[in-house]
Request: fold
Amino acid sequence: ADRLIRWDRRHEGGVPEVAVLSFDLQGLGEHQLLELRSCLDEHAGATPVRLRVAAPEGTIHYQLDGVKLDAGALAAVHDTCPWLQACVTVDAVALTRDRGRNGQGNGYGARHAVSANDANALPF
Reply:
């Protein structure tokens, strides 16, 4: 490990966080997913967003490229989309990602994400 982070001091900075939005795709209409997309645009911020979608095929995780949320707006997102659960947590993927070809850097760079070219892969 490059460094140790005390769990009780993780909110003091230096720890990557992610907003996880979880919902069941079963029974949702396209209009509800478009409402979520609009809500994410309305409450843009600095926290990356990951979707955890329960689908008939199983649970699917999407790391949305370029979509960031104001972590203080989780209640507003839930009010707009009461069918989802939202939380901010430590981004374990960023913490454990390979450090790159030369082993340099902090490991929080290029995220494995759905790019704009793969927008058709998103459920909305």
User: Anything to note?
Assistant: The mean pLDDT is 78. The CA atoms of residues 2 and 103 lie 10 Å apart. The chain has three helices and four strands.
